[in-house]
Amino acid sequence: MRKFLTVLLAALFVFLAFAQAKKITIWTSEAQVPILKKLADQYKAKYGIQVDVIQVNFSDIKPKFLTAAPAGEGPDIIVGAHDWVGELVANGLLEPIQNLPEKDKYFPTPLEGFTYGGKLYGIPYAFDGPALVYNKDYVKTPPKTFDELIALAKKIEKDYGGEVRGFIYDYKNFYFSSFAFFGMGGYVFGRDKTGKLNVKDIGLANQGAIDALKLLKRLVDEKILTPGDNYNTMDGLFKDGLAAMIINGPWAVPGWKQAGINFDVAPIPDLPGGKKPRPFFGAQGFMVNAKSKNKLFALDFLTKFIATKEIMFQIWQADPRCPSRIDVNEEVMKRDPITKKFADFLGTYGLPMPNVPEMAAVWGAMGDALAKALDQGVAPEKALADAVAQIRAQIK
C-alpha cells in the first residue's frame, strides 16, 4: 500500500507540474529562432503546452544565464555550446539528462562534450567549426597552403582594384584563429597520464603558439588582414560578394544561400612546414536550467520531442550544421555536399573545445593577446606570456 501511495504521489506531482507549466521559455541565438518557433507551434498543437522562443545574442546567453538562473529567473532551456557545461555545472545551474532515448544513435564526441563528471547535461543537435569558405566567382581552385592563400588574396585585391577583399576573417577571436595555434603545436590544457585535462599545464605560450601568432602577424603586416576586421565585417562583405575567401562555419550557410553567393568549402590551407590546421570544433545542444520550476516539463520536451530523428532532421534543414545523430547525419550526407565537406575536415583535423570551467578564463586572455600582438605592436612572445599569466591568475 505504501509503495502504491508513493507511486501515486509521484505521478500526481508530475501531473501537477505539467498542469502548472502553461509555458516554458528557451533562450537561443538568431540562427535557431525560426525553426524553434516552428517546432514550438508543433509541440503546442500536439501537447497543448506553449513554448516561448527568445532570441539572445550567442555571446550573451551564458553570462546572462549565469546571472539570471541563480535568482530563479531566466529561461527553462538554453541552446548553446558544449564548452559552457563545466562552468554552468560548477555553479549548479544545469539539470542532468538522466534518460536520453536512443542514446546509441548519437556520435560519441558530441555526447562527450556535454558530459561532465560522468553525467550528461545536454542533448547535442549538431557539431560545427570553421573551414575555408570561398566565392567561386573569384577562386577557381582553393589554396592548399598559406603561402598560396596569401599570393591569391593579393592577386584578387590587385585585379579588382582593392574593391574585393582577397581574404578576411575574425582573426582576433581565438575560436577562429585556433586552427593556427593547435596546428603549429600550441595547446590550451595538457593531459595527465590518465588522459584527464591538467589545467595547470597551459601550452598557449610555447614555441608552437608563438609561431602561430607570428603567422597571423604576417597576414596583418602584408595587409591581407586589417585592424577593423571582425565577424560582422567578414560576413557582410562575403554576402555582398566583396570577399573572396573567409574562415567561417556551417551556421552561416543559410545566409550565403539567401544572398545568392556562389560558394564552396575547403580545408583551411596547410600551415608552414606542411603542418595541418587544427581548429576548435564545438557541439551545440539544449541544456535545462536546474533552478527552473518547469524542469520536468523541459526535460520531457527535449527527450521525447526535440531528440527524435524527425525533429533533429527538421532542425538540420533550418540550421545546416553537422548533425549529432548518426541516422540524421547519414541522410544529410546523401543530399548536402557542403555539410559533408565541413564534416570531413572537422572530423579529421578538428579539436573539441575543453568543457572544463577553467576554459572560461582562456577566451578573454587570448583575445587580448591577439589584439595586442596584431593591432598594438606587442611582441608575440610577450602577448602570449601575458595571456598565460592572466589565465593562471583566474583559475587558481
TrEMBL record:
<keyword id="KW-0732">Signal</keyword>
<dbReference type="InterPro" id="IPR006059">
    <property type="entry name" value="SBP"/>
</dbReference>
<dbReference type="GO" id="GO:0042956">
    <property type="term" value="P:maltodextrin transmembrane transport"/>
</dbReference>
<dbReference type="GO" id="GO:1901982">
    <property type="term" value="F:maltose binding"/>
</dbReference>
<keyword id="KW-0762">Sugar transport</keyword>
<dbReference type="Pfam" id="PF13416">
    <property type="entry name" value="SBP_bac_8"/>
</dbReference>
<dbReference type="GO" id="GO:0015144">
    <property type="term" value="F:carbohydrate transmembrane transporter activity"/>
</dbReference>
<dbReference type="GO" id="GO:0055052">
    <property type="term" value="C:ATP-binding cassette (ABC) transporter complex, substrate-binding subunit-containing"/>
</dbReference>
<dbReference type="GO" id="GO:0015768">
    <property type="term" value="P:maltose transport"/>
</dbReference>
<feature type="signal peptide">
    <location>
        <begin position="1"/>
        <end position="19"/>
    </location>
</feature>
<comment type="similarity">
    <text>Belongs to the bacterial solute-binding protein 1 family.</text>
</comment>
<keyword id="KW-0813">Transport</keyword>
<protein>
    <submittedName>
        <fullName>Sugar ABC transporter substrate-binding protein</fullName>
    </submittedName>
</protein>
<dbReference type="InterPro" id="IPR006060">
    <property type="entry name" value="Maltose/Cyclodextrin-bd"/>
</dbReference>
